[in-house]
Specification:
The structure holds 2 protein chains of 2 kinds. By secondary structure, chain A is α+β, with helices and mostly antiparallel strands. Chain A has 4 helices and 5 strands, in the order βαβαααβββ. Chain A has a single domain, classed as N-terminal domain of TfIIb (Single Sheet). Chain B has a 7-stranded mixed β-sheet, sandwiched between helices. Chain B is elongated, with a radius of gyration of 30 Å. Classes of the chains: A alpha+beta, B alpha/beta. Chains A and B meet through strand 1, helix 2 and strand 5 of A and strand 2, helix 6 and strand 3 of B. Chain B: Pfam families: Methyltransf_11 (PF08241), WBS_methylT (PF12589). Chain B: It is found in: Cytoplasm; Nucleus.
């Protein structure tokens, strides 16, 4: 159940991997769409915390191009609806996330990413 | 029975069987629910604002379910795959991660409005291997520093745990302070053996303006209602109310025994009469 909302917050946490470790790149993903409750207040509040460029890229990787490349000044309902869909309704079920810096592979199986590190990677 | 954290590491202790048992035990469900509500109360989030929370050691989602009910969006991490599997079966709403909190989090700074953790961080107090990154102080330091950066400023983290000694509380609070947290320990029902609960209330930011909340005082609600040995007392009372106990060795029993002795050929069995099995007068 990796949704893009959490993917957008997730950086690599292996030892010594401190720069260029975000966003993790998707690979061989299987996605599933599950409807969620639409909550515009939550989205408006959360917008400031998002890394917009990374979110648009990640959505493109998953085949969704409904988001504009820049955050629009006017937050109308259509925009919030598509943001809601991208953030909360696209679930990555299988595949992997790869750190762009250290190439660490975080495998996703059954919707749960394995974030465990080997002993030599612990910071 | 010794504490679970002394028996095996969490990902092994909470295997398939233990995970099911844990989740289906209604007593554990009740305790977890109570502590989750209490933790949310201590978290003191502004009302009517949707919040994004981190559930550390979410397990099978017993606490996550309550976060769902309360309308929070949340992310859960746990180190036991079997527990997460149960959480998937129970279809909780939050995103789940298989992660060892002693290895630190990889979340970007300022990601969460708050964090809760129910009965988890005592698991960090045991070393699994002799590797330096496996020592409890190192794991705690890694946990608290990455948690501190993942939280927004200002925000709170409420971590309920079961310490075995004051030294452990001391160790945990000192490492949390080094990581930049303010706050302290809140003890609910400090005089009760069973209901005593320790919450670590950690604050991010706002220059010590936040006060550590007070723990609940007095006896726990359960214990107030029922005194010790009340059940036994009730049983005895009931017996007394029902009237005299029937004597087991009544006339029928005596006649049966005498008949038995006669059949076995025992000598000098007294003969039966109208006085058999009758009570003597109090004074001869």
């Amino acid at each position: 159940m990796v949704r893009l909302i959490t993917h957008n917050l997730l950086a690599c946490h292996a030892k010594g991997c401190t720069s260029n470790n975000f966003p993790l790149q998707f690979k061989d993903v299987a996605i599933e769409i599950r409807e969620a409750e639409f909550n515009p207040d939550f989205l408006r509040g959360f917008l400031a915390r998002l890394e917009w460029g990374a979110l648009v890229d990640a959505a493109r990787q998953l085949g969704d191009t409904s988001l504009p490349p820049e955050v629009p000044d006017m937050l109308d309902d259509d925009f919030l609806k598509s943001l809601h869909h991208v953030l909360l309704e696209i679930h990555v079920e299988e595949g992997a996330m790869i750190c762009p810096n250290c190439q660490h592979v975080y495998a996703i199986s059954n919707g749960i990413p394995n974030m465990l590190l080997a002993e030599h990677e612990i910071g | 029975m010794s504490r679970p954290e002394l028996q095996a590491p969490p990902e092994i202790y909470y295997g398939d069987i233990e995970a099911k048992k844990y989740t289906n035990n209604s007593r554990i469900q009740q305790i977890q629910a109570d502590m989750t509500y209490r933790a949310l109360e201590l978290l003191n989030l502004p009302p009517d604002e949707p919040a994004f929370l981190l559930d550390i050691g979410c397990g099978s989602g017993l606490s996550g379910e309550i976060l769902d009910d309360e309308g929070y969006t949340w992310v859960g991490v746990d180190v036991a795959p079997s527990m997460l599997e149960v959480a998937l079966e129970r279809e909780v709403e939050g995103d789940l991660f298989l992660q060892d909190i002693g290895q630190g989090f990889g979340f970007r700074p300022g990601s969460f409005d708050g964090a809760i953790s129910i009965s988890v961080i005592q698991w960090l107090l045991n070393a699994e291997t002799s590797h330096p990154t496996s020592s409890p102080p190192h794991r705690l330091a890694r946990f608290f520093t990455t948690l501190h950066s993942a939280l927004r400023n200002p925000s709170r983290a409420i971590l309920q745990f079961y310490p075995t000694s004051d030294d452990q509380i001391q160790l945990i609070t000192s490492i949390a302070q080094k990581a930049g947290f303010g706050g302290g320990v809140v003890v609910d029902y400090p005089n009760s053996k069973k209901a005593r609960k320790v919450f670590l209330c950690l604050f991010v930011g706002s220059g010590g303006a936040q006060q550590v909340p007070k723990g609940l005082e007095g006896e726990s609600p359960e214990e107030e209602e029922r005194a010790k040995f009340e059940k036994r007392r009730e049983r005895i009372k009931k017996r007394e109310k029902d009237g005299k106990r029937k004597s087991i060795k009544g006339k029928d029993w005596i006649l049966k025994k005498k008949e038995l002795y006669r059949q076995r050929g025992k000598e000098s069995v007294p003969r039966d009469s109208k006085f058999t099995g009758r009570k003597r007068k109090p004074v001869f």
